[in-house]
Amino acid sequence: MWKKEFDTSYVGFMKDGAKWLAENTDIKLVGLDYLNVAAWDEGVPTHHVFLERREVILLEGLKLDGVPAGIYSVHCLPLRLIGADGSPTRCILIK
């Protein structure tokens, strides 16, 4: 994520994967350590799948390198932006 050039080969959700996750699990938060949770070719359709459900929170651009494997509680503190469909968020991990 911290390279000078944008990398379109990053790993992200395709529309069908997002749909399966939303319909078949009780997952409420999806986070990725790149700029988008959706695969490069499927950005808008994938976001629509997640956002139509209004139950799945998307976190993009997480900086997780250096975090040891383990069980954590995550607390997300978004900015309150009136009329916005997204917001910068500070996420805190508590072990």
TrEMBL record:
It comes from the Eukaryota. GO terms for molecular function: arylformamidase activity. The keyword Secreted applies. It is found in: Secreted, Extracellular space, Extracellular matrix. The keyword Isomerase does not apply. Its main location: secreted. One of its GO terms (biological process) is L-tryptophan catabolic process to kynurenine. Keywords: Extracellular matrix, Secreted. Belongs to the Cyclase 1 superfamily. This is Cyclase family protein.
